[in-house]
Input
Amino acid sequence: MKPSTVQSLFQSILIEGEVVELDEECIKEIEGDVKSNFTWSGIEEIKDEEEERAFEKREKEEKQKKENWKSEIEWFNQIIERNVHLYGGVFLKINGKALVDAEWMNGSLKVCNGNEGMMLLQGSERAQELIEKYRQEGKVNELEIRKFEEIRISDEFRCFVVHRELIIISQRYNDAYEVKIQERKKEIIKKVNELFEIIKSHHFSDCYTFDVVINNKIKVIGFDEMNERSFEGMTFNKEELMSNAKDINVTKPLLKYVEDSQHIIPTVKQFYGIPEEFYDEKVLNTFLTNPSKLTSFYCFGLNCKVLKLNNSKNNIYFIIL
Output
């Protein structure tokens, strides 16, 4: 279901915001080179005062260039600024997907102006892939601009629907233990069930997910078709979900969460502060099976003169002494 359709059907239960169609001019800029949006200066050894002055001059020029750069798409700047004025900050989604793979570029998904918004869009490989996919399918690319909220881990959940039945409500991430979830168990199930009564009468696919934030109110973050990525960060897998869906003796929905600190599944980002996009599958598997080897790998990287990180669109060089 298109974001604009979701917006028209569920505006009252969605996080506040709006949906706009991306025109070709804006898409062309998103697919273009990242300009001065992201600058990594690295660490350089300064040998004398003359070199130090030259280094400071380059730094100043880069900073000025970044501050002066502005997206050429005026309507894009205006719509971001309008929503920032309303909400204090926004986050963006393209064709229903958040730009999570570009979060490291800004340190957050929070956007406070058009430049930051365009930076995330240009730097997101996920956004590029979605734009191309929709182009090939003859679909319109849509951008969601929604109120940015600092969401506590204990307040965010992913809900799994199988054959139009709500089967599991899950803690969104399994790398944290939150005692408040257990304390609020009945409240969480009650609020999600009430929300699902509004949702279930509308036609989605047979199996889908929706993410919610529950504090004083319950709000929908977004809907998505169910696929392999739906289970990333969950405390269960697809087989367990389907088994629960078939079991007539199981009271549904089930609430899944990390029940004690022993069941936390740590992530590379949690330990090293480096985005998982920079690690290949082999390194991630090593982290899960033998983290000490990854520590050795990482320390080896620190001994290099230059650490090169690739993400299909940009080559990022870290100069390390």
Observations:
- Residues 49-68 form the longest helix (20 residues).
- The CA atoms of residues 153 and 194 lie 22 Å apart.
